[in-house]
Design goal:
mainly alpha
Length: 103
C-alpha cells in the first residue's frame, strides 16, 4: 500500500512544483492580473492537466530510465501490487454473467 501512496503523492508534488515554476516565470508577469481573474476555474484545471501530463510522461519513460531516477520522480521503482478480492479458487474465464434470467 505504501508503494501506491508514494506513486501518487510524489508525482503530484513534482507536478505542483512545475505549476509553481510556470507561475513564477517573469514572462507571465504581465498576464498575472488576467490569469488571477480566471483563477478560480482555470488554475485548478491547468494544475490538474499539468500534473496528469507529468505523471503520464514518467509512466511512459519509466521502463527506459534507471531505477534511481524513477524513484526520484515517481516515489518508487516498483509498480504497486494489489491483493485480490476474488474468492479462493475463483478463476476468471472471461465470460460475463448472463442477466437474461433476471427479467
Amino acid at each position: 500500500m505504501l508503494t501506491s501512496i508514494l506513486r501518487t503523492v510524489i508525482p503530484t508534488l513534482w507536478g505542483g512544483f512545475i505549476v509553481w515554476l510556470i507561475g513564477a516565470m517573469p514572462v507571465l508577469a504581465p498576464l498575472k492580473a488576467d490569469l488571477l481573474a480566471y483563477g478560480d476555474l482555470l488554475v485548478p484545471f491547468l494544475a490538474s492537466l499539468i500534473i496528469g501530463a507529468w505523471y503520464a510522461l514518467w509512466r511512459w519513460a519509466e521502463p527506459r530510465m534507471p531505477a534511481w531516477l524513477v524513484r526520484i520522480f515517481l516515489g518508487s521503482a516498483q509498480a504497486p501490487v494489489y491483493a485480490s478480492t476474488a474468492p479462493a479458487g475463483w478463476v476468471d474465464d472471461g465470460v460475463l454473467p448472463d442477466d437474461s434470467d433476471r427479467h
